[in-house]
Amino acid sequence: MLDLRVQAGLSQEELADKAGLSVRTIRELEAGRVARPRKDSVRLLAEGLGLRDGDALQFLAAAGHATVRPVIAVADAAPSGLRWRGTRPIPDGLVGRDDELAEIETLLRQNRLVTLVGPGGVGKTELALAAADRVSSVDTAVVVVDLTTVQRDAAVPSAILDAFGTAPGTSDLDDVLSGRKPGDLVIVEDNAEHVLDGVATVANRMVRSFPGIGVLVTSRIPLGLPDEVVRRVQVLGVPANDKDLDEIASSPAVEMFCRRAARVRPDFALTAENAATVARLCQRLDGLPLALELAAARAGSLSVETILAALDDRFRLLSGPRRFGAPHQRTLADTIAWSVDALSDPARQLLYRASMLGSPFTLDAVVGVCTGEPIDALDVPMLLAELVDKSLLQPVHEFEALYGARYKMLETIREHAYAGLSSQGSDLVEFKDRTVTWCSTYVEGLDGAWSSPDRERRYRAANANSATFEVALERASALGDWDTAAAIVLGFRIAWQYQASLAESGIQWASVCAENVQDKEVSGRLLAIAGRLSNLTGDVRAARRYYGEARNLISPSSEMGLMARGGWVSSGSLLLDTVSLAEIPTLVEDAIKHGDVQRSATVQAICGLALARWGRLPEAKELLLAWEAALVNPGVYPDEIAYMALSRVELELGNLAEARRWAELARDSQASDDPERTKVAGCLAMVEFQAGRFELAQALIDEADADIRGHRGYFDYLVMLYRSRLARRTGDLEQARSSIRDAVNRLLLEGRVVYLLDVMPEAVAVLHGLGQHEQADALCGQLLAWQRTMDPPMLPTAWAVLQESCESAPVAQGWPLPDPAEAARHMADDLLAALS
């Protein structure tokens, strides 16, 4: 072999590189220390030396592979009794992976081939090693194959044999694998994506021909085999906010960062002072374990605040000092580049262009903005699938039926791809301008959607593009093109209403555009949108302000003028402002004169809700039934909020059967996977509670409460109120105290003071139950005075609770008070002090 290498003009290192073998193997073969080299190794050497046909066969024969040889026993391949070969899992290497680890252990015990896929740095290797460790035992051996340095598909069998610890003279892989009993061996093939064909070929042979062997693969790309079970490894969960210390501390990403930071700075710990910064740091890093680890390594010399501030150039900050692991995973930039560099040019360009769409984004946005040489529109679905398969994009399955197919890009990957797009001359500017054009055209297609039979689908599909619209608005504002920005906001306005978490962006853009457009009518319409969205996010005071400004700019009888006036009435009723109610008769009359049945019905429903809050139940019912009667007209569609209002009115009037009927209609009109299921479940719970069906009411409250944790809803206070009533009934006074305190805090924060009159009578009962009779009687006396002298009165269900709890409390003196809203807030503050 030495002569052949010299004739080829290759050094040992060059031949090793060409053949995909180690330099050690070349050296030992040439020194004559290997009597019978592996057949796979000889074949690779022949290819590396450039031997063809007869020369290659002669080379194989000279190495002793011209005839069939006997199978070598498994015991000969490795010392007996050795049950683990290769890299062991790092102690304490996994954080927040208990459920995934248990699932993968189960999969390994039930399946022959399991592949863990995910983006670079997500923790596939540690998860695989920990799962293999769980299944290893006296009867099950584990062999870990690190494929990082393997350069060719054909070299995969040799790498596996090396992992078994066999000498270069050991025979073929089949010799080592034969004779295994079922469950005897698990082979972990780590970092397989760059030699995927080789790994797939060997894995397929293993699971089809050797029933005693299980295979666990880690890769950024699935193998694509029929027997393969694929599990995507997700990033670690990050805190939903940076304010709740308990929620921050329970985040797996935060836990991992703190553990790793403590290794380089022993006194590091999560505290009330640094929790918000740590939470934002973990959010910025997407919960990506490698990024968290590299950032934590900086905690020995930098403060957490400095690390967070430096994340604008994260690839420079997170460039080390990792000294172990695969070479392409020692810096964050190398990890991402490893995957991106392996893409085809169209896929890479699509990744670059999609990076400026915001996240998540839709297939429609990609086709509309990102196509053009070298990307054909017809190829986009295939290219997106390639990026998902290679773990550079993640499909968003949450609410898929509502919002359609969406994709998200980890911020770390997005930053890398965005830099790639920015480096390509004027491409970044071109595609941002194309985003403005696409969004402008898109909102034109929404014109009239409110009256169309498929309005839910159209608006939710638009909502799915919220991040892309943000990009378009930023670009239009940077150009000073406020008319275009305003047109986009006006066209997109309804889509923002479907998720309160996104409405904040709509408020910002509506108010900014209102300040910059020249047309006063347009400005007023934009302010009305800001008011509507503020109401949805719970900021009633801001809604009132925006609606008030809009009323002075828009024609009062126009569609948007009616909307602004309706919003002003609605927000006023929440703030206990009697001036608002005086406008209801004129507003309803103007809406009917407007001639649009849909607009008239909407205004009557809004006014009905306002009157219901004010305790004017027969008048509220009349307007709400007028809305319900209008449903027979084209363009007027069921709305769960109005149905719920009718249910509440009937409940307060004592008509339980009708209340249940309206609540069930609300449930039937709500999308099955609406992110704000809280509303209807809470409404049904109220009916069942008043009917004495407490177990069913509890189940519905539990369902609604689970929604509150993930999605803030407009009627959450009712869920908290009825949780207290149910808890008090079973004697769980601490739960009742907590629920009432949460409800009062929520209503004070949002300014919806009218609903405090629903909650405070229950609070009196809770205080009595806790033995705090003095505080309970003081609050009760104030509420009794309110009921006699103030407007609006408490609703019948709240009044009944107060009467049960306040048999002997004296009526407070000095009422009525000049400012009802201030009086309600003052009582609520005293209540919170008593409940603390």
UniProtKB/TrEMBL annotation:
This is HTH cro/C1-type domain-containing protein. SMART domains: HTH_XRE. Gene3D superfamilies: lambda repressor-like DNA-binding domains, P-loop containing nucleotide triphosphate hydrolases, Tetratricopeptide repeat domain. Residues 1-57 form the HTH cro/C1-type domain. It comes from the Bacteria. InterPro entries: Cro/C1-type_HTH, Lambda_DNA-bd_dom_sf, P-loop_NTPase, TPR-like_helical_dom_sf. The lineage of its organism: Bacteria, Bacillati, Actinomycetota, Actinomycetes, Propionibacteriales. It holds the Pfam family HTH_3.
